[in-house]
Amino acid sequence: MDKAIWMSWYDLPEQGRDAYFSWLHETYIPKLLKNPGVMWAAHYESKKVPPAPRLTHVSDPAVGIGSDYMLLFGGESSYTFTKGADFYMHPAACKPGRMHENLTDLDRQMLALRSGERVTIMIEEARIDGPEAANREGPMVPGASIQLGNFCTNSVAAEDELLSWFGDWRLEALQKLPGIVGARKLVGTVGWARHGCMYEFVSEQARIENYPKIRTLYPDAAVWTERFTRNLIHAKGSPMVANRIWPPVK
Fold it and tell me: Is the pTM of this model over 0.70?
């Protein structure tokens, strides 16, 4: 099972973007997929959907603000993505992490194009299949359109309520929502965010048409959501709505 996701959010300059995409999709991703335990990859472009006014976003300048693109790698566990002991045991040697061993000059040049990058590694707390699960493009390919949130809470009490919000309502509701391929509740092991949630839709249009229905189908829970989500502190651009650009949508 793919129980962990390595996530990178970043921006790109307009100049050199096409060359970057060719390198990423044809060279970099295939290279990293050869690493033991790396099971899938997906690249998304943000739709820049304005967040709900009630949401609070982190102001810490140390948290990257890139939000144009998102690169995901699925792994057997969070340990799939460790940098490796040599990275820390021999820092004077400047050894790269094992996911970035044997980088070429072109690899380094292309990686340097990313700006505002934010990286996190999350593990799966829970997973559900939605009504469109049978239309997934392969057993491990994330949906054509996703909504991915990364956040912390503002108190210990909010942590407890978050557990109930997902466990007693949200995931069950998503399981029945038209257009949903699946959803995952995630918890952070590396990076700023303590929590994450990824909702997968069969298409962008399916998300536009069906996601707002969750408020009308569950009015009591919608009131709860309006109140409770004010206790979350999101990363910049979160929740990010994005469409998959690799692998190409069939």
Answer: yes
